[in-house]
Design a protein that fits this description.
Layout lengths: L5 H27 L2 H28 L11 H4 L23
């Protein structure tokens, strides 16, 4: 999880543990109770998961710097960001000492 902050990492782990517990619970309901109850429980769990996904998507779209924000290009960041240590040179422009 490179690039994920401490709070983000904790949230990912919390969701993973919650999903594992929900899966184990649904398997337990299917094994110990009847399949009708397991079917209803799984339908409810799927509906809740869908609503949570909707909220996460809306938050990601609304917050500043989300998917709708303009991307920063290497040209906007300057020549060093593009991988060149010399301003004005590129792979398509021959350098001053190159033969033609």
């Amino acid at each position: 999880m490179a690039g994920v902050s401490g709070a983000g990492r904790a949230a990912v782990w919390a969701v993973a543990i919650l999903a594992g517990a929900a899966t184990a619970g649904l398997i337990g309901v299917a094994a110990l109770v009847d399949m009708d109850t397991a079917d209803r429980a799984a339908s409810l769990a799927g509906a809740v998961a869908g609503l949570i996904a909707l909220v996460v998507a809306v938050v990601a779209l609304v917050r500043p710097g989300g998917p709708g924000a303009p991307a920063r290009t290497a040209a906007a960041c300057g020549p060093d960001a593009a991988g060149s240590s010399r301003a004005g040179t590129s792979a398509t422009t021959p350098s001053a000492g190159a033969r033609r």
